[in-house]
Amino acid sequence: MVSNDELAGYKIWAVDNVVYGPAQLPILVNWVKEDRVTADTWVFSEKDDVWQKAAQVPELQMFFRSKPARKASVEAAVPTQGLTPNFEIEELRKIKVFDGMDDPQLTRFMQHVEAHTVRQWTTIVKQGDPGDAMYLILDGEVRVRMMIGGKESLLATLSSGGFFGEISLFDHGPRSADVIANTDCLLLKVSVAAFQKLANEFPDLTSPFLLAMGKTMTGRIRAGNKRYSEFVTLSQAMDREQ
Asked: Which of 23-27, 41-45, 116-120, 217-221 is least confident?
């Protein structure tokens, strides 16, 4: 027999300022166990008609008491510089922009990169903020979006092996869209300063990196042109029917 508490709906105020749900209690409990919902996450109980932090929700308190204390983090991102090359070299091969590098080059390149673990629903990049780095996705999934008229417009979904924010390496202008973590992610951050140092001191590392990145960006432009062409064709067909 299912209890009324299990049937009740709960909404989650995520770190990207988007409300998710309603979700029933068993799903919410799983999110707590998976650390998708933390003690400080705001939860709305439809049964009680109240917002409160997850640790204060009576149905969830027992699960937070049984969880070990977590270290504080800044914006849910924990930087870990200086990856151990031998430990990560196999995983790094998932990222296509490293295809043109041999192992010694990749090992040297990684000395100028920061690794960041990012929690689900974290806003990694915010539209309008200064562009100071690009990010490579070692593990996880992100979505690229724009908020138009208060609604989310999805531009792309990127997963392991992809990258975003690359334009900042060239023009340092404002971010053109938000990037949100759909899942917990492991990202490699290449700052503008680090890349400029690489370009000046180690052109043998940046050349294959830029070439591979250019190929991916070309593919994105071709796909964008195709979508635009299809949109124009559809619009013209609709105009003819009117």
From this structure: 217-221
Contact 29, 12 (CB under 8 A): no
Helical packing angle, 192-201 and 203-241, nearest 10°? 130
List the domains of the chain with CATH numbers: 4-65 (3.30.1490.40), 77-230 (2.60.120.10)
Q: Which of 21, 25, 30, 23 is nearest to 6 (CA)?
A: 25
Q: Could you give the CA distance from residue 86 to residue 74 in angstroms, rounded to a whole number? A: 28
Other residues' Cβ atoms within 10 Å of the Cβ of residue 206 = 19
Strand partners, 118: 77, 185
| Mean pLDDT on 210-214 | 80
Average pLDDT, the chain: 79
Whose CA is closest to 14, among 59, 62, 58, 54?
A: 54
What's residue 242's pLDDT? Answer: 66
